[in-house]
Design a protein that fits this description.
about 230 residues; mainly alpha; Endonuclease III, domain 1; about 70% helix; globular
């Protein structure tokens, strides 16, 4: 892990924020908010879409751009959000797998998201760890499940666009493990036997919360994996 740390030690949390805000996913959501201008509908769409953002046919950046474009071009009604997202994914070029399972996930999440979105979004904005725990409970998943952690990341993007300020991710939020992070772990793990401990320790050494560290690893991945 020391070799990976040495390659990243010049980075700061400010660098991570700059990288995140150049993320095509972030830019796509910013464009969507400029059109919708309704923070509750905007948040509902983002959270629901986050929970079905897996097993995509193409890159996540392409999918979120497709998502943003669709809802810019199609009117959204508060009382029909699941139907609206259903209509989106059945014509999506990037989200074609496990459609029925994903619709069931949307239905399962609906009561929690409605209560949270219309009443308590500011509370969760300041307590993202609690949001992760409660969302995982509702979805009957582990708190470190990739879609759960990813939903928190997208919630952060929502809050930056709506409130125009940044709340840093709590240090206890883990990085969502994907194929890139597995490959880096295999290359640099040395004595580490647990991938989660590996990234936790790297985060501590760099003094950058794991979810922000994810952006740095993402943008440097090609060079780091060589």
């Amino acid at each position: 892990m020391q070799k990976l740390y040495n390659k990243l030690k010049e980075y700061s949390i400010s660098d991570a924020i700059n990288i995140e805000e150049s993320d095509r996913q972030y830019i796509a959501l910013k464009k969507l908010y400029e059109f919708i201008r309704n923070k509750e509908i905007y948040l509902s769409l983002i959270l629901m879409n986050s929970l079905i953002c897996y097993q995509l046919s193409w890159k996540g950046e392409d999918y979120w751009e497709e998502f943003s474009t669709y809802f810019i071009e199609n009117n959204v009604e508060k009382n029909n959000l699941i139907i609206e997202i259903w209509n989106f994914i059945i014509q999506s070029k990037n989200n074609k797998r496990f459609i029925e399972t994903k619709i069931n996930r949307l239905i399962k999440s609906k009561p929690f998201i409605e209560n949270f979105v219309w009443k308590e979004e500011e509370y969760y904005y300041n307590n993202m760890s609690i949001l992760r725990t409660e969302l995982a409970k509702v979805m009957k998943q582990k708190i470190d499940a990739k879609t759960i952690v990813f939903a928190i990341k997208m919630f952060s993007y929502w809050s930056r666009n709506v409130y125009n300020k940044i709340n840093y991710f709590p240090k206890e939020l883990n990085v969502p493990i994907d194929s890139r992070l597995i490959a880096l772990y295999e290359k640099y793990k040395w004595e580490y036997e647990d991938i989660n401990v590996f990234y936790l320790d790297l985060s501590k050494k760099l003094n950058i919360p794991e979810l922000h560290l994810d952006a740095i690893l993402w943008v440097n991945y090609d060079n780091l994996i060589k």
